[in-house]
């Protein structure tokens, strides 16, 4: 089975721009979660989508949004980029059952100049 | 509010010895726990999990222990190898909801 894939792997943007990141989950997985990782901050939960509906949401501003398509692929959008948005953005998928394991993609490294 | 805590940012261990990584949590509703290993610029790789109905789970060199009364989780790696050098994250969830992650412990295994 193919793993979780994320595109692009690296991205450089300037302040004020917007960006869209893409995630394709493991085949058969219906849940996709997004995380932000910055040095010393661990993994900060952004949101989770399950069957095209946002199921959980972390404490991030409204500039961070996402969506999920009928094939379970997900996109995350960040508008009006700030320098502090520079981070590794990780996507993780799981089947969606109550007790299941979450598998991560390689991440997208976003740099905001 | 940090519901999952890894209080040791770093740990150094000699090759061949045991590595013990610790994790504490505050939410008694957590019923599923995971450990991940992460190399720089890569996504975390799943290592081992445990549900709250167990107190131990073993997979090769990796063993996870769960002490529900103390709200404490630990990962034992025996024997430790240089390739185990990475950042280790513990994570917990309640009833299939979002996972909460610790801030990670950087393990260095010295040859």
Which CATH top level class of chain B fits?
A: Mainly Beta
The CATH superfamily of chain B is identified as: Immunoglobulins
Determine the structural class of chain A based on helices, strands and strand pairing.
mainly beta
What proportion strand of chain A? over 45%
Total number of distinct structural domains of chain B: 1
C-alpha end-to-end distance of chain B: 38 Å
Describe the structure.
The complex is a heterodimer of chains A (113) and B (111). Chain A has 113 residues and is mainly β. Chain A contains no helices and eleven strands. Chain A has strands at residues 5-7, 10-13, 19-24, 31-37, 43-50, 53-57, 64-68, 74-78, 87-94, 103-104, 108-112. In chain A, strands 2, 4, 5, 6, 9, 10 and 11 form a seven-stranded mixed β-sheet that branches. In chain A, strand 5 (43-50) and strand 6 form a beta hairpin. Chain A starts with a strand and ends with a strand. The model of chain A has no long low-confidence stretch (mean pLDDT 93). With 111 residues, chain B is mainly beta. In chain B, 0% of the residues lie in helices and 54% in strands. Chain B is built from no helices and eleven strands. Chain B has strands at residues 4-5, 10-14, 19-25, 32-38, 45-51, 56-59, 62-67, 72-77, 86-93, 100-101, 105-110. In chain B, a hairpin with a 6-residue loop joins strand 4 (32-38) and strand 5 (45-51). Chain B is globular. The interface between A and B is medium-sized, with 29 and 24 residues.
């Amino acid at each position: 089975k193919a793993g979780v894939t994320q595109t692009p792997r690296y991205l450089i943007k300037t302040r004020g721009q917007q960006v869209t990141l893409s995630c394709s989950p493991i085949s058969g997985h219906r849940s996709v979660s997004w995380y932000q990782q910055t040095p010393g901050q661990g993994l900060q939960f952004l949101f989770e989508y399950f069957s095209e509906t946002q199921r959980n949401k972390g404490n991030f501003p409204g500039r961070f949004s996402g969506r999920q398509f009928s094939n379970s692929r997900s996109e995350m959008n960040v508008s009006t980029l700030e320098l502090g948005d520079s981070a590794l953005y990780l996507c993780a998928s799981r089947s969606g059952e109550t007790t299941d394991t979450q598998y991560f993609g390689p991440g997208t490294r976003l740099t905001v100049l | 509010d940090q519901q999952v805590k890894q209080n040791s940012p770093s740990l150094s261990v000699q090759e061949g010895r045991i590595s013990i990584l610790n994790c504490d949590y505050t939410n008694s509703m957590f019923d599923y726990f995971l450990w991940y290993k992460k190399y720089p610029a890569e996504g975390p790789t799943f290592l081992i999990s445990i549900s709250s109905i167990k107190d131990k789970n073993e997979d090769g060199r990796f063993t996870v222990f769960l002490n529900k009364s103390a709200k404490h989780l630990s990962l034992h790696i025996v024997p430790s190898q240089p390739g185990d050098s990475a950042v280790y994250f513990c994570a917990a969830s309640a009833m299939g909801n979002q996972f909460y992650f610790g801030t990670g412990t950087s393990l260095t295994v010295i040859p």
